């Protein structure tokens, strides 16, 4: 039932404006695949091309081996969950879920069994005779999910389904969605701009920017080994330093602009000695060290967040890649030796095993084994 | 999905609407304008018809008359309607619900019934005139300018009232509180905050009043006597069997359409510059008027409502009077009703059949064409959208004349048929239904339709199963209002009717002209009762307490 999806050199244009130039991506059968990116990056456009609500101006989209470019939306056998839920307000919960099955002329008793089962799976059996306006946002979301899944679609498409819910319900619903998806085992394409949601829910994530996929990989890979600086800064926070690769003790090391040398064993072939590079250090990849064992900075701000304290750091301008919103160090309170105060001067040592090194222009990672499409 | 043209349902609807508006609106209008520039006998191009109009006082005076009476009606209606809305919204008024219902009834009742019953009251042999004459007092003449002004103002101020009351309900009380916190109070608050906030609404209402007053045919025809206005002049020149006056009438119609379209554009321009949207979280609080002020306010409101309702009541009363031929005699009877069910039975059934048929067409076209112009935008649907604006500016009598001129010959001989009356009703009311349907569609999220399609329903099936179902309540309540105006329609039907296609309003008009007041009253009573019944249904269907036209 469920299918693999292939986008092959897909192009989307509105008049002269190209939204997606030649995008290629495969999505495996049964996978939970997320399109993540800032608003306007083309993720929803791509989703709607798969659904059949947007035309395809070039290339092909295939379900398994079948080209679907010219199949109208209602014949593609897709299940879709919308940002606005799009529950039919004139039908009860049960009638909403039955809608797709009725169109397929399913016998009454078979339909009843199926609907009962799916209502149970998404836990809305008790509301089945209500009109949608009397349901909460989370309950409406469950109806939308049940309605999309009950028809046994080839793929399940979800367009920012949680963005209208409050924070707590969002977390609750995302595990519900994940659970139901695994239970049914259906290929799912999920669109979101919320990176935390994407990391929590996906098998694989494709990070998009301006209609181009920047990197595809598991949540772990995307976070720990981003393919370029955009991904490094879009997913979580990364502090960007100017640096150069040099030789140290027969291996490679990165040298910060203030002269601090950090030996690294994770830099790949492509990172040549003498290359200028951009060094990305996440706030939690620093540790406090003694003078001369790290890079020197001043504490500028301090925000207490419970589990962490986030410090804003002050570096000399020539050490940093320009135009960064903030340079931060997150101190895990569980392991904090000492709490710093605003105005303190401190030496911080980046964790050589974890930090990432990119080409100076940020376009590509120089780390061993990092690929664009995993 | 490619963009290749498909000959599907929507293509048919596009074609259908272009044919309907092209054939029954643009083509007739065009031929009317063309004939305005033609010599009656030779058919050669001439400006003679226009110069004829502007050279003779008898003719151009009608334009001046139309303007002066329309302007006065508009100003008066705005003052009365706005004041009423102000007091009804901001103060506690006893019997507010009943007052509102009465206002709506007087708005929806047949336009010329007002004229006719004021003649019954204050005409030469009117009830009041004779009663006062018995006491030696001479009642001022109700005919002419004053009569038209009285009748049309009473008939049209409800437009302003409904518009302004609606807008005032949308003023957030925080706006007024903000003004007060900044040190603004009393009359200054009304002038600097309230009035500017409702000005666009007043302008929109004023346009409705102006257009209605300008185009109204029945009222000045009955009560105007020597005071000629343009619609009456056009009608009589057109109907005039002596000589070939059709080209001259066409020229007058062209002048009139030019005037109404100018006013329409002017209003659009002003409103576009000043328009803004308001939504109220907390409506203005309802205050209580104290002492003598309270008494005066209530008296004024009740007097106004009484004046508005008098025509209906007089008509209902006289319908039960005993008549001898055309003359009322002492005592009561149902003779008038017996007469109309006998001789004018077809007029009654025609009215219901025509307006119901028109309503069915309007609902279907209204929903589908609105869908086309909002969801399937193209240059073609933009043209349709523009075409559907035209009926706003074309007075009913002008539309009637254009249709009659255009469809008087083979191969498209439609004059005298029921079809042409139904078509004129559809053309006149469709734009209103279209606007309201589009407004409903803009509120409906397209993802509802996409959800249905993703579940396997074809786009057409989706339209009928989802979109249409959700639009229907809103469209139906609008359609009921259209139906009410259709049964009361006179200005185009009076030109298009023949013996077999007479409607009730036309029958009332001809009965009044024959001075057969008893039968006219009985017919009017039936119309009024039908109107009220339809309104009750409207309120049930829409769950609302107000009306938008």
UniProtKB/TrEMBL annotation, chain A:
InterPro entries: AAA+_ATPase, ABC_transporter-like_ATP-bd, ABC_transporter-like_CS, ABC_transpr_MalK/UgpC-like, Mo/tungstate-bd_C_term_dom, P-loop_NTPase, Transp-assoc_OB_typ2. PROSITE patterns: ABC_TRANSPORTER_1, ABC_TRANSPORTER_2. One of its GO terms (molecular function) is ATP hydrolysis activity. GO terms for cellular component: ATP-binding cassette (ABC) transporter complex, substrate-binding subunit-containing. The keyword ATP-binding applies. Residues 5-235 form the ABC transporter domain. Signal peptide: none annotated. Keywords: ATP-binding, Nucleotide-binding, Transport. The keyword Disulfide bond does not apply. PANTHER family: MALTODEXTRIN IMPORT ATP-BINDING PROTEIN MSMX, OSMOPROTECTIVE COMPOUNDS UPTAKE ATP-BINDING PROTEIN GGTA. This is Iron(III) transport system ATP-binding protein.
Automatic annotation (TrEMBL), chain B:
Keywords: Cell inner membrane, Cell membrane, Membrane, Transmembrane, Transmembrane helix, Transport. It is a multi-pass membrane protein. It is found in: Cell inner membrane; Cell membrane. One of its GO terms (biological process) is transmembrane transport. The chain crosses the membrane at residues 12-38, 58-86, 98-121, 141-164, 190-211, 246-266, 299-320, 352-374, 386-407, 413-430, 463-484, 517-539. Residues 63-267, 348-538 form the ABC transmembrane type-1 domain. SUPFAM superfamilies: MetI-like (SSF161098). Gene3D superfamilies: MetI-like. CDD domains: TM_PBP2. Its main location: membrane. GO terms for cellular component: plasma membrane. Pfam families: BPD_transp_1. PANTHER family: FE(3+)-TRANSPORT SYSTEM PERMEASE PROTEIN FBPB 2, INNER MEMBRANE ABC TRANSPORTER PERMEASE PROTEIN YDCV. Belongs to the binding-protein-dependent transport system permease family. This is Iron(III) transport system permease protein. The lineage of its organism: Bacteria, Bacillati, Bacillota, Negativicutes, Selenomonadales.
